[in-house]
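seq as requested:
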Amino acid sequence: MSIIHSISVRSGRLVKLTFESASFTRAARKTTGTARQARSRIVTLAGALSIVYAGMFGKLIYYGLVVDTTTSSIPPNPIMASRPDILDRNGELLATDIRTVSMFAEPSHMVDVDEAVEKLTQLFPELDRKALYQKLSDKRSQFTWLRRQLTPKQQSEVLALGLPAIGFRPEVKRFYPGGRTAAHILGYVDIDNKGMAGMEKYLDTQGLSDLESTGLAVRENLEPVRLSIDIRAQNVVHDVVTDAITTYKGKAAGAVILDVHTGEVLAMASAPDFDPNDPQATGSEGWLNRMSNGTFEMGSTFKTFSMALALDSGTVKLSDSFDATGPLHYGGFTIHDDHDVPRRWLTIPEIFRYSSNIGTARMMDLVGMDRQKDYLTRFGLLTKMQTELPEVKTPTQPKVWKKINSITISFGHGVATTPLQTAVAGAALVDGGELIEPTFLPRSVEEAAKTEQQIVKKSTSDTIRYLFKLNGEQGSGRTADVPGFHVGGKTGTANKVVNGHYSHTLSFNAYLAAFPIDAPKYVVLSFIDEPLTGQHGLTFATNTAAPMVHDIISRVAPILGVEPDFGQNLLASY
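struct tokens:
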């Protein structure tokens, strides 16, 4: 029994062990299944997350590619290209850059086009409603300019509208503190700050545009550009020129002051003009710089050059006389003198003082056409003038010179030159006969001496100064004289060509002057085009252009440091 019992017990333990073993196996299997399930879930989750992140990453790449592609039309925004300040000869500011912003839109992101159009046109009435709507409705467009160069106030007003897809880009705007004062000298820039005229355009041709294209035209890299202009004198000239149009009811007017020793332009104005801060506002009429880019028959001012070439060539002496008793006939043309010219033989000084067309014509007939043409070319009156200002017009002359051309050109009809180059030639004739090309940049006497050309003998220059002084004291230039400053010069009243014929009522009047005439420092030339009235109701140069010179010199002479000389007259008054 004990043996059997023992076996039974052992058998029971065996069964129990077997049962426990089976239970453990089932638990292990269950645990293994759970672990596999957990791993499966983790793998699934990881895979899902990988897919999500891959999608996000792909989307970012897509958006990146889309932005690169669709915004390629948006102007790049590097460091803003600047222009150098422009200063006058004394360091006064003439032009500078100011920071501004321009408004743009992203039509593809525009939410409510109608609302945007309504609000923007209320704020900016000048915007074209139809064009604006078309711009903002183009969902294919990623960028479009709406308005350039806003003021800070305008920018804040736009921001207050709360319009989506409206942005601002920083830009540079050119500002001219003097407005119209030196418009034709400075010129102006376009909306992208590129020089379009005047010295602004000249700066671009001197390498500024290359700096801009390479991104180097930043304010810190640019030195100010100093001009030869004296803004004090420029203000005077501009005032006189603009007032002359009103006073004499003229079509246009202009004037220039030249330093005869250096060729520097100290002041120059032409009217009508424009405001370089808004050059489009006055229209194209004011853009023409008549001083350098307009050509005119200069009338009797040309007798200055006829006298100079006749005397310098040795053909004529100052003591010579010519018959002015009656009109001259050349072919079908008749040369007359004004009614106040004496009908007799006139000496050379009298021909100049009385401005005799007949006497000048007889003198030039003796000189000869070839020599006349050669000298006028030497004076720079038949070729394009060289200077920094881009707006320079080439003079006009007959294609084939004939004797009648030579005669009429001697007293200022038949050749059209610019007023500025007339002043330049005049400066040479009163300053020792040395021609110096004009400049709008500072130039020393030593630098000028390297470029000057001797065009007539010094003795000829001395004679021209004498004739200028004579006319300033006794002739048509008396209305330009300023006590103490001794102004001499030559008037010119040229009849205008209307429908192919010279008008008897419309004229181009000029006065070429120098002061102080005994030792000239400056040349002043003025003109008034088609004046309808003048001093004492007359429209000659002595009644219009010469008084303009008087007004200019009386105001600028003290500014330029010219001391008045009253000589014996001052002592006699005490």
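The first helix runs from residue 2 to 70.
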